[in-house]
Write a structure and sequence with these properties.
The chain is of the alpha+beta class. The protein has two domains: about 15-155, OB fold (Dihydrolipoamide Acetyltransferase, E2P); about 165-260, OB fold (Dihydrolipoamide Acetyltransferase, E2P) (Beta Barrel), CATH 2.40.50. The protein is about 20% helix and about 30% strand. It has helices spanning about 15-20, 75-85, 120-125, 140-150, 215-220, 230, and strands at about 30-35, 40, 45, 55, 60, 90-95, 105-110, 130, 165-170, 180-185, 190-195, 195-200, 210-215, 235-245, 250-255, 260. Strands 9, 10, 11, 12, 13, 14, 15 and 16 form an eight-stranded mixed sheet that branches. Strands 1-6-7-4-3-2 form a six-stranded mixed sheet, with helices on one face. The protein has a two-stranded antiparallel sheet with strand order 5-8. A hairpin with a 2-residue loop joins strand 2 and strand 3. Helix 3 packs parallel to helix 4 (about 140-150). The protein starts with 12 loop residues before the first helix and ends with a strand.
Length: about 260
């Protein structure tokens, strides 16, 4: 996934056309736009007319190395597969609720000319994991199901173990700071501090893995878990998100689709 800093430039005409698709009158209709792919940047990012950058919704592919850093495992394979499928070809962008991210990239699912979904293909082949971020969740259940099948079969990125893996123990999370991962472990304690809930995977907040939920997100999305302590304390769970460093490693989540309870 390629990341660019926000910038202020004149909005190209194609971007205006794309943004027009997000008017309130079309909120509940499937909004689409056909475009020609000019260049594939990596497994989940590509350029179209006027160098507009498209970020494929609902998936995250391994990172290509930048500034002398090595590629993540399977990053080159994901980029080649996306290039084989869409480079120089016409595709249909299918939009969800939010059409642009903080970096000015257009957010869309991608339908190939034969009707297949690019995200589904990469998930099926173990070259991507499901990226969950509210409010763009219309395909999250299908994507998670496809990811689970690939993970169970040990395909591609799911064949890796330890910090190099996309699914890893909470004890390995520190080595994967900056990456989008599925982290597995048992919740030791749950506590509210101010406007945030903390799901702690150990007793030392300075070193142990933690999941953070803002109270506003909990009220908005966690109706099925009104008591976080009863819902998660002592449970073995898997949580997905970008690992950050806040004392120890942490993932901030905003939607229950980012958490799964593992039956034992």
């Amino acid at each position: 996934m390629s990341i660019r800093r926000p910038h202020s430039i004149a909005i190209p005409l194609l971007l205006l056309a794309l943004l027009a698709l997000f008017s309130p009158s079309t909120l509940h209709a499937e909004r689409t736009q056909q475009v020609m792919v000019k260049r594939v940047i990596d497994g989940d990012t590509f350029l179209v007319d006027r160098n507009l950058r498209i970020r494929v919704l609902g998936i995250d592919t391994p990172e290509l190395g930048r500034n002398g850093l090595a590629d993540d495992p399977y990053a080159a394979e994901a980029m080649r597969r996306t290039r084989d499928l869409i480079d120089g070809r016409s595709v249909t962008l299918v939009f969800d609720q939010q059409g642009m991210d903080d970096y000015g990239r257009i957010l869309a699912y991608v339908k190939l000319i034969d009707g297949r979904d690019l995200g589904e293909i990469l998930l099926d082949e173990g070259l991507a994991m499901t990226y969950v971020r509210s409010p763009n969740l219309s395909r999250v259940e299908e994507y998670l199901a496809r990811e689970e099948r690939s993970r169970q079969q040990g395909m591609g990125i799911w064949s890796l173990n330890g910090a190099a893996g996309r699914s890893l123990s909470h004890r390995d999370a520190l080595a994967a700071v900056g990456g989008y991962r599925r982290v597995v472990g048992r919740v030791d304690t749950v506590s509210w501090v101010g406007r945030q809930a903390f799901l702690n995977f150990g007793r030392d907040y300075r070193t142990d893995f933690t999941v953070v939920i803002d109270r506003s997100d909990w009220r908005r999305h966690f109706q099925d878990a009104p008591d976080l302590t009863k819902s998660y304390q002592g449970k073995m769970i898997a949580v997905r998100g970008r690992i950050m460093r806040r004392n120890g490693p942490m993932i901030r989540i905003s939607h229950p689709a980012q958490i799964e309870i593992i039956l034992e």
